[in-house]
Amino acid sequence: MTTGAAAEILGVALGCALVVGAIGLLVARLIRRRSLRWQLLLVATVAALGAYAGALAIAQLMFLSAHDLTVMTLVSSVSAVVATLVAAVVGRAVSGWSTVLHEQVRGLELGTPPRLDDRGPAELRALSAELADVQQRLESSRQRELWLEESRRELVSWVSHDLRTPLAGLRAMAEALEDGIAADPDRFHRQIRADVDRMAAMVDDLFELSRIHAGVLKLNPTTLALSDLVSEALAGAAPVATAHSIRIGGSVDAGLEVSADPAGLSRVLSNLLMNAIRHTPADGVVEVTGRRRGDAVELSVSDGCGGLRPGELQRVFDLGWQGDQARTRADGSLAQGAGLGLAIVKGIVEAHSGRVQVENVESTRGCRFSVLLPGLT
Ligand SMILES: Nc1ncnc2c1ncn2[C@@H]1O[C@H](COP(=O)(O)OP(=O)(O)OP(=O)(O)O)[C@@H](O)[C@H]1O
Ligand SMILES: [Mg+2]
């Protein structure tokens, strides 16, 4: 065959294939919303029709014999049938894989356990893996939401318990004073005052927490010398420590500074110190330390509480959670707090882009609360 004839065949075949391809594109546009199976069938059909059309045109041009044309048509037909069958089989498989993905997406809504499909083409497998990942994250946030709802419910019942008990006491004392049957009115007045102060502090804490959770906590960060802050907190806690026969002390790396809201950080430190003093037995030691930790600043309070159990280590920062002894009081008087202190600490620290954690310290038979704050840049 001459080069010219070959070029002519190529040109004619290309022309026919382009025409059939253009019609195929048009049909593809019309069936674009149909199943992938139809699209695959279309590809196979376009390929077969392109070959047919090319063969026919060339036959006309080159005046092929009827016999040759029949042979070409038969060969093209067989390959067209096979191509269509292959397209149908692949289309069926693709549609099966997409059904699995569909079920996975439905699983997201129903919360069924993630199911990874490792068959199918790379793109669908990647999509399936992504879906399984999303499903897992969704499940853990669903669990967290349930748990938050539960802790909110617990908080309401705990706080109402913590307010109802002292209110009943206050009413009894007020009635006794009113009826003039109080044996020691001065003691009653002092008790009423102390209970009212504690209840007011509890309401303040609740208000602070609602501001933290609403994200409207106003911080005025300034550069603070950590040693000053620690000295002030130690001086503030000293009377309570002395009353409990507890030694308190601290050390801070020289020149250590942090950018934080002074009132917020003092609150963090005093909450941690008060807890430490409350949970350390008489003659124990409570220590505050300020250290550089790489780019960050670590402020920690260690005590001699005897260690926290694993379940307690996980829950101490939960809103309203209190250890067994902290909540119940045998005499029915106002419990020491409402389990809000550490939730406030966490909220304030996180508002400073820091984090707070607790760990047991074997050597001192106690625990250590550490606050990690970003260092000055
Ligand atoms: N230093 C500590 N040592 C041992 N247990 C602690 C310590 N600090 C806190 N806890 C436990 O964590 C619980 C929650 O502490 P949190 O400060 O949030 O509440 P609270 O001290 O009981 O009440 P509030 O702080 O509202 O007055 C406490 O009831 C106690 O069981
Ligand atoms: Mg507390």
In short:
The protein has 377 residues and is an alpha+beta fold. It contains ten helices and seven strands. The strands form two sheets. It has a five-stranded mixed beta sheet, with helices on one face. It has a two-stranded antiparallel sheet with strand order 1-3.
Bound molecules: adenosine-5'-triphosphate, magnesium ion
Count of alpha and pi helical runs: 10
Helix/strand order:
HHHHHEHEEHEEHHHEE
Q: Which architecture name of the largest domain does CATH use?
A: 2-Layer Sandwich
Largest sheet data: 5 strands, mixed
- Any idea what the shape is? elongated
Q: Helix amount, in percent?
A: 55-70%
Explain how this protein is built.
- A 5-stranded mixed sheet has the order 2-4-5-7-6, covered by helices on one side.
- It has 10 helices and 7 strands.
- Helix content is 65%, strand content 12%.
- The chain has 377 residues and is of the alpha+beta class.
- Residues 328-335 have low confidence and may be disordered.
- Helix 1 (3-30) runs antiparallel to helix 2 (36-62).
- The chain folds into 2 domains: 3-110; 221-377, Histidine kinase-like ATPase, C-terminal domain (Heat Shock Protein 90).
- It has helices spanning 3-30, 36-62, 66-110, 122-179, 185-214, 226-243, 262-279, 310-315, 324-327, 341-351; strands spanning 222-225, 247-252, 257-260, 285-293, 296-302, 355-361, 366-374.
- It is elongated, with a radius of gyration of 39 Å.
- Bound molecules: adenosine-5'-triphosphate (ATP) and magnesium ion (MG).
- The site of magnesium ion has 5 residues, from helix 7.
